[in-house]
Amino acid sequence: MRKAKLQLDAVKAALEKMLGERVVMDINRGRNKFERFEGVLTHLYPGIFTVVSDGKVSSYSYNDILSRNIRFCSKK
């Protein structure tokens, strides 16, 4: 349990560095379907973070990153 807490803190620290920047994410929609999503990382909350793209706000859990359902990738 302690190791998971350390990993979660590392994810939050990494996202704090990207706050306010444009990010590109690959989101796993299931059955090997990935969707590329680009937006601005706007807010960090205790359980979730929000990304705004084209005026639409989407929220994601930090656990989505730990379980690799969301991957941050470089802009191509």
Set down the secondary structure blueprint:
Blueprint: H1 2-18, E1 22-28, E2 34-44, E3 48-53, E4 56-61, H2 62-66, E5 70-73
Antiparallel strand pairs: 1-2, 1-5, 2-3, 3-4
Name of the top-level CATH class: Mainly Beta
Poorly predicted tracts of residues = none
The CA-CA distance between the termini, in Å, is 37 Å
Radius of gyration: 12 Å
Number of helices: 2
The proportion of residues in beta strands is 35-45%
Within the largest sheet, what's the order of strands?
4-3-2-1-5
H-E string: HEEEEHE
Derived from helix and strand composition plus strand pairing, the structural class reads alpha+beta
Number of β-strand runs: 5
Overall number of domains: 1
Note the main sheet.
5 strands, antiparallel
Described by the principal axes of the CA atoms, the overall outline is globular
Predict the CATH topology.
SH3 type barrels
Overall mean pLDDT? 89
CATH architecture: Roll
Share in helix: 25-40%
